[in-house]
Amino acid sequence: MNLRNVLIMPFLADKLFYFLTFVALLSALLVVFSKKPMRSVLFLIITFFCLSGHYVLLNAQFLAAVNLIVYAGAIMVLFLFTIMFLNLKSDVVDKRSVLTQLTATISGGIMLVLMVALLRQAEITVIKEGVDGSVGLVESLGKVLFRDFLLPFELASVLFLTAMVGAVMLGKRDAGDKVI
Predict the structure, then answer these.
(1) According to CATH, what is the number of the domain 1-92?
(2) pTM above 0.90, yes or no
(3) Would you give the end-to-end CA distance of the chain in angstroms?
(4) Contact at 8 Å (CB) between 46 and 23?
(5) Would you state the pLDDT for residue 28?
(6) I need a labelling partner for 11 at 20 to 30 A (CA). Which of 43, 91, 152, 177 fits?
């Protein structure tokens, strides 16, 4: 049975979708246009929560939980520590040249035109018959991951282990290094 039908009545699901979309877009815009970095991080957390709500509406509970744990949890803590470590002051604002602003505006406009053109050519198909209720659950993801994609999964784990060991080695200080 679909979680969307169990938890939320179908006529409320559309309203919840539009509400989550509105809040996600608004908070994403506030991430970009906020002057203070701490507020940007908080708006990004709100965006991640809204995206997790979309995952639940799409019957992908595992992705919603992973999004909350990994992105809204771990990555946001990393962003907050980085911002606090850098100790950014509001009086140290980098002024961009007019050429840089013009280049950024032109490239952003080109990307917007390309996205609109690609979305206009996209075909949307809705399959209502034969929907499996276990599509977004951990069991079906685990079966596919460990049956069809075992080698890439293991290679990714070795890559992450190597990255962690490298980060520890780079962050480790020698006995003769001075602490400033």
Answers:
(1) 1.20.120.1200
(2) no
(3) 60
(4) yes
(5) 92
(6) 43
